[in-house]
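Homework-ish question, so no full write-ups if that breaks the rules, but can someone show me the predicted structure for this set?
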Amino acid sequence: MRPVFLISDLLFFALIATLAVYALSLRHKPSDRAAWGRVFSSSVGKWSSILLVFFVLIGTVDSLHYQVNKDPEVLSALDTLLSPLRLAKEKTYSAPLADTLYVKENVVQPDGTVKREAPPLKHRHLMGTNKVGQDVFYLAIKGIRTGLMIGMLTTLITLPFAIGLGLSAGYFGGRIDDAIQYIYTTLNSIPSVLLIAATVLVVDVQIERYADKIGSAAERADYRLLALCAILGLTQWTGLARLLRAETLKLRELEYIQAAKAFQVNVARILMRHVLPNVGHLILITVVLDFSGLVLAEAVLSYVGAGVDPSTPSWGSMINGARLELAREPLVWWQLVTAFVFMFGLVMSANLFADQVRDAFDPRASS
Amino acid sequence: MFNYLLRRILYAVPILIGVNLITFALFFMVNTPDDMARLNLGNKRVTAEAIERWKVQHGYDKPLFVNPDAQGLGQVTDTLFVQKSLKLFTFDFEAGDDGRDIGREISHRMGPSMAVAIPTFFVGLLVYVSMALAFMLIRGGAAELWGLVALIAMMSISSLFFVIGGQFFVGKLWHWAPISGWGDGVSALKFILVPVLVGVLASVGESVRFYRTLFLEESGRDYVRTARAKGLSAGRVLFKHILRNSAIPILTGVVVVLPRLFLGSLIIESFFGIPGLGSYTIDAIQSQDFAVVRSMVFLGSFLYIVGLILTDLSYAVADPRVKLS
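A: Not a homework solution, just the prediction itself:
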């Protein structure tokens, strides 16, 4: 057994580490600590963050990948934990907690006659099985990592651009401001679903072209996921950049920045030490608010055909598959309902949490 | 005013050129015509001749920027960039991969698109603003708290569920309306009903919260306090003062999206089988018809910029404090 580090795993752990560093740095920032105190003291903030931590824990366990000797399949620690679920495969659809398959088959009886009945299942499935007989509950749990990755990695990728460009547009003004504003107006003017779908199409062709150079199927799916995050980020950074630009425009006229300039503190230092900490709350609020939108976007993109790799379990592809299941007779509802419950759980807790964070950190927030 | 408008229109040109360059880079440089041909002819084992033939057929057999074989000005104009990309500025769309003229498709399909998008938008606006006003009237109670939680819950539901749910319950289970399809004239009404309902419902959470924030912001102003101090009733303050003053941000929010209504809605149209521009675009993405996607990207950006210019104008019309110069 040897560990496998996919790029998204590494980025995910880097993100967790950043969160830890941020949490430690709070020791020196009493005002931020007080704001977080407000978030966690409300019952909504408490419960939503507990749920989120739970989701992140599952995502983390699912990001510890390894390969068993010669077996090409890349597994995660979560797969091992859930191997009873993962390996409990049936032939095709079965309803939640059913004893038999959902469809009837010709079964040969012990006395040699053939009878049409639903054959018994090998296992019991909490949320039933899908068309190819995989456990739906297991797939939904696997979807957590995909949802988290899309919500978190996209932000991680866009943050440097949004901060760098937003701050410099606001601080330097003039030509630089014009150029940066031009870039984001142009990007904004393209309908975002179209831009994303078009870019995903192009990336697909490229991945296809270099298919030989990309090793395993897991790596390929991982590249696709990363590409999707990067592409989503392409449309996502403009909002934060615009906010930061406006705030920096105001900040740069304040006395303490003027004083720093007069003392000839170098520009990078002014931006890092004097401007950035004072727009921190904006960054935090935007990141938390954007998260849920990104998780939801994945489902829409799956429908458009620009979602994650088909081999990556995701709620978007479950919902997309469920569309046809509702049209069949008798209908199959459990895949849709399971994906709905999981997605709703993550997005709702993220939304409630984001609301608390905004109320606690935004000085203008209305109560 | 006229000068301002002229300047804004001139300012839009570089943005459209930028959009044009981005799409050109995506579709011709990252993704070469060879890739496109291979994709269309079915990936593996395609001969070089077949690729050449496809490129000639679809007019992709020209160099990107400079054509050394052509005469005079043709060196610059007889290239992919001018023929395929700059031509969009004249709204001269080419033919899609299925050979149909994109321009004609657009003019056929904008009717059904608007028939769904415009009612969705205005019914939505009415519902959202009224709900946000209702939230202002119940401020500070338990009802408001639960209402807000309900809004967040609505926000947390993927729009796909609204579409699938609407189709399933209204169409399949209750048989109130056809599941999908389209008819001419008045018969189209029954096909429009469910999509409009779903469209309105899908963004209830976000929109009501947005309008509520607008009203809340307005209600913190001095003139509101003065009005209350004079003893006006809560309803009168809300409708006569807050609503009328919030009309400006509401109006400008409306104006910016108006031109885009023309493009319809991607998801709703394709789910309900409405033969509009949204479903056209989705089909193009799914069948990887790059010519159509390119045209729709350009059209979408163009309409967005029209929306921005209209927004500025509407500011000047609605708000006497704003003077365009």
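Now go work out the reasoning yourself. Hint: The two ends of chain B are 6 Å apart (CA to CA).
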